[in-house]
Amino acid sequence: MKDRPAHATTHVPNGELQSELGKLAADPDSPPETRQLIAKALAAWQETAAAYDAAERRYRGLFDAVPDPVSIIDWDGTVLDMNSAGLRLFGRDRDMLVGKPIETINPDLPRGHLIPVLDALGRGESYVIEVTNMRADGTRFPVEVHSASIDYEGAQRIVAVARDLSSRADVERRYAELIESVDNGIVVQDGEGRVVHINSAAMRILGLMPGDSSEAALTSGRWLVVDEHGRPLSPSQLPPQVARSTGKMVESQILGVFRTDTDQFAWLSVTVIPKFHPQSGKPDQTLSLFNDVTALKRDSAMFQRVQSLATIGAWEFNQGNAHVYLTDGARGVLGRSGNLDSLDMFCDCFVGTDALRLAAAIDKAYDDGRAFSLDLRTIQSAGAECWVRVQGELDRKDPSGQCLTGTVSDISERKLVEDTLRKQARTDPLTGLLNRDAILDELQAYLAGASPKLAVLYIDLDRFKIINDVLGHNVGDRLLCAVAERLWAAVGNRGLCARLGGDEFLVLCRLTKPDIHIEIAEAILSEIARPFRIEQEEFSVSASIGITESPRDGCDALALIQNADAAMYDSKRRAYNGWQSYTDDLARRQRDRLQVDFQMRGALDNNELSLLYQPQVDLRTGLVVGAEALMRWHNSQLGVMRPDIFISHAESTGEIIRLGAWALREACMQVRRWRDEGHNTVRVAVNVSYRQFLADDLAGTVEAALSAAGIPGTALELEFTERVLIEDEPDTLRIFAQLRDLGVMLSIDDFGEGYSGLNYLRRLPIHGLKLSQLFLQGVPTNTSDVAVCQAVSGIARSLGLGLVAEGVENEAQRRFLVDLGVPVGQGYLFAPALSPDDFIQLLNTPPYAKHGT
User: What are the residue boundaries of the PAC domain, all occurrences included (predicted)?
Assistant: First the structure.
């Protein structure tokens, strides 16, 4: 056991503990069960100890039986164990080697010698190398070392087997083969500097021809040797002589060699290794290895120039000696020419907290091994502030883990571009105000503050679309720019202004005093109300403003904006050029709309919809000639919903497309049922929403409904609002032609209320018009209403279109329409909207036949 390494852990129980357990097992006062249990445990323990000792003896016997030196080495090069053959060969006691670095027996190993060993072992391979070992008396001898991975003391270590090459006859042959096989130049010189061997690569690099005397060529005055800075070197300063005189390796020295007789110049990277005599222990040979780095040196010089031009440099910090190294390029970027050797001096180049950020990033890089990149500000020697990007990471090639390397680059111009792009990304390109994303960010930042009391003003121009359509988009854009200027003038430094899009704007203001948001709203209305003059045109516009306050009307950005939008629409509904605060009533109406929306989505699936039919009557005879299908909705929670409310809501949400398709199918099926009952003369009119008209394949939907019911197109009439008249003319003509090909009757509902596009009316293949009840209310006494009714009737007659009057409520209106030549009417004078059964009953017994003339 005395031969075990000092760090080995022994698990065998000690004698004192065994003695104490023996006493407990023999103690008559202990319970028998306890004595038996202790005796069994002691026996097992002793058996384990015996097995452990036997295994240890086998290990030591096998280890020491190997005739060649065998070492167990840790990954950092520490010797953990060595067999007897190794101790004899090196002439040392165990205590002189175990726990010591491998360089104790191999002082000539180059720096990083373990890197290829670890690389080969990491791939599951072994590693073989020829090196020089040293005995305790200082004499050296060559060995061939085979290294492999081994499980030692529960962890992976390196096992190295060395074979003495001193007595091998072919060592010189193998040595010569080796140096001839490499591409690097190799020159072997004896203790006096005479050339013993030179390989072909060296002759090629030095420009020697076959048959040249290498001895004469290398020692003649034909060579001028300079260091990497161009300073000539004397013979005593040449690397082989330095290695012979010091007994130390010269590693990777850059030399310039100039051959005077041929004017050839090359840069070489030279490493010289001294070889020691096995008896004297003194260098009796040197091995010079070199390669041509002329291109690399040239590239390095060019790189230094590129660094200067590209305003980039490199830096390195060694935590072990607390030293910072900066390239000339890095000093140029920082605008420093003096000494910056310490980390504090390096960090002090940066402004304020940026210096602390850099120091913290460097500490963190050592802690977690992650790279960092920081944008920092520095004040250059001329006093100008510039932006610098500092990047750094641990040098993975440094086994000590102490070196941090990185770059320093001037990014001032890039920062300027980024700031410009950032401003552009936050700015509305037309007006120069903040855009939607920017104002949303500002609002969220306000709300995250300590005192998020603020107001949101949602501003929408009144009648802007008319100006844009009539005067053109160029005038419209210039108007928006003028409005933005007036908005700034009204708000000043009291808030932030943004354009959300179109003619909608937003203002944020902190509630620094009571009613400041009301003052701003009235100032905005006053500014915008003043006439505008653009391109010789003078006109006036107004604005409607909705106002919300935080936290009263919401605590998040989207809620505040949406509620301000709702308040704006409420203000516009009441009157133009006004403002409206968000109220509990508005909140209730919003909740009602949400509830209607939720319930409406299940209306079809829950069979909550129905169609009623209002008779269309021949105004002269009183006979029912058709019907208009009107949708009704009865919800279990909301009750009977007013048509104007739920139809308008369905229009705004797009649900009207599904509802309208259902109405078409249901109306056609009802006509089918009536025909099956023998009522073949009834034509049903169904309203088609503007959204349905824009939806895909309206003609296909109608054709499918007719086909499913098995009725001809002539049994169906479709009523469109005037809004379809201003849609894309080719598409409108195509859709109307498709419907007319199906035999469907086409009419324009509420004619005269909206656009009244007579040019479109002349082009479209429609069959009739419906006179709005809005104009029928004042007849026959209101001259304006009478004039409109006469005009619509004249248009229909001149174009050969049918005409149906809506909202006929009294006999005077009926007589006026008859005298005007209007053939058909509908309204409460005849009947309200009826269920299918009640409608058929009215159809069989027309109550107004007595009015026939």
Answer: 127-177, 372-423
pLDDT tens-place string over residues 728-748:
567 778 888 999 999 999 999
- H-state helical runs in 66-107: 84-90
Question: pLDDT tens across 100-134, in order?
Answer: 898 888 887 877 788 888 888 888 888 888 888 88
pLDDT band at 212; cut points 50, 70, 90: low
Please indicate, yes or no, whether residues 740 and 831 belong to a single structural domain of this protein. yes
816 near 807, Cβ under 8 Å? no
Number of domains in the chain: 6
Residue 54 lies in a domain: yes
Dihedral-angle region of residue 50 (phi above 0 means left; psi in -120 to 50 means alpha; beta otherwise): alpha
Residue 576 is given by DSSP the state S
Using a 10 angstrom Cβ sphere, with 0-12 exposed, 13-18 middle and 19 or more buried, the burial of residue 170 is exposed
Give the end-to-end CA distance of the chain in Å, rounded to a whole number.
Answer: 135
686 with 722: CB under 8 angstroms?
no
Task: Kindly state whether residues 404 and 438 are assigned to the same domain.
Answer: no
Task: Give the domain extent around 46.
Answer: 15-63
pLDDT in tens, 265-306: 778 889 998 888 776 778 888 888 888 887 676 555 545 555
Instruction: Tell me the three state secondary structure of residue 781.
Output: coil
Residues 395 and 540 in one domain: no
Rounded to an integer, what distance in angstroms lies between the CA atom of residue 316 and that of residue 365? 13
Taking residues 37-57, what's their average pLDDT?
A: 69
The CATH number for 698's domain is 3.20.20.450
